[in-house]
Amino acid sequence: MPLQTGNAKNNKLTASAAGDTLLGLGGDDTLIGGASLDTLIGGLGNDVYVIQSQQDIVQEDAYGGTDLIRSGLVDIYMDTVAYYLNGTSFVENAQLTGLLNLNIWGHAGNNVLTGNDGNNSLFGGNGDDKLFGGLGNDLLYAGNGNDAVFGGAGDDTLNGYQGHVTLSGGAGNDNIYTMEGAYLVHGDAGNDMIFGDYMKDTLFGDDGSDMISGGANHDRIDGGNGNDDLNGEYGNDLLIGGKGNDSLFGSFDRDTMQGGEGNDLLRGGSGLDVYEGGLGNDTLQSGGGGSVMKGGDGADEFQAYLGADVMTGGKGADRFVFANNWFDTNEVLISGIKGDRITDFEHGRDKIDLRNLAETETFIGARAFGNEGESEVRYDRSKGLLQGDVDGDGVADWTLTIANKAQITASDLIL
């Protein structure tokens, strides 16, 4: 195994035979490996390693300068090369060129790792690291510390860890995972999948049709452009659909959902949720915890059941659909002032759909219930109360409040 040794100056050492060992010592050295198994040891100084074999080994002293790995290969190799930067090998920075599939492990220092056009695996390790995937379908891991991870072009997988971490997928259909830290995540262009953890995350889908799950804390989730699927999960979350036909699911706790532009589906969970449909023909489905639901512009559909929901249709011909339980229509609406409320019903434009509350119903105007055994619906405009006698015993089984006391006739109801 031939040994080439530099000195305290800036040396350029090139492997000339199989199994060379290049030892730079002091100075800012450039060490160029050959076509077979070579060992490159920079020593002190800011060194550059040029790699031309998948079998090369790079070693550095701990904190022996700010060093850089460059891949000198230009051909496609299906096998992988691993440059171990932890343990006995310490290289701060790596810049990979060409098309070789490379793996890099960072150490406890602050690393800058840059992938090439191949499918790279970059591991930041401890320290405040920056990882750049480059072209290719890359696998990027942030270690402990305040890291920034950029996937670049390609379908990348980004994994966060502890610390304050920024994850950016770049172009391509990326999978992004957070874990045990405070995160700012951008999916960027492409149809991305983003998963929050039990910490407080800020998650942006950006362009593309993205799927984002918040995890178990108070998260901000913004789908951006595209037809996105957002799930708040646990915590008091803010879900923003943005442009496109989005699906927003509040899940548990108290969530705020903003559909934005497009024909959106907003579904609440068990908490006291706030819905804002925005532009477009939206569907707002109560989760049963009692919600404030605003349709905005467009012909919106409100689906209300268990819980005291407050519904504002906004502009457009809106439909209000009622069932006390979408899974068990034998249950009846909560009666009295604790029931559901429509704030801005417009006669002749909006519709109230009561078909889920009884098999057959008859609208009797303002008169009292009276036909024994018949399901009837009455409306007292002076009080703004729309009521139904489902079992025909002459007593209201459900009450819906029309807060603006609008005129309601049989043509406004779907029975």
Automatic annotation (TrEMBL):
What InterPro entries does its record include?
Answer: Hemolysn_Ca-bd, Peptidase_M10B_C, RTX_toxin/Mannuronan_C5-epim, Serralysin-like_metalloprot_C
- Offer an example of a GO molecular function term for this protein: calcium ion binding
Q: Which SUPFAM superfamilies match?
A: beta-Roll
GO cellular component term, pick one: extracellular space
Q: Quick one: where is this thing mainly located?
A: secreted
Species this protein is from = Neogemmobacter tilapiae
A matching Pfam family: HemolysinCabind
Question: Carries keyword Repeat?
Answer: yes
| This protein's record includes keyword Lyase | no
Q: Where in the cell is it found?
A: Secreted
PANTHER family this protein is in?
A: S-LAYER PROTEIN
- What is its cofactor? Ca(2+)
Domain Peptidase M10 serralysin C-terminal, residue spans: 240-414
Q: What is this protein called?
A: Peptidase M10 serralysin C-terminal domain-containing protein
Q: Could you tell me the keywords of this UniProt record? A: Repeat, Secreted
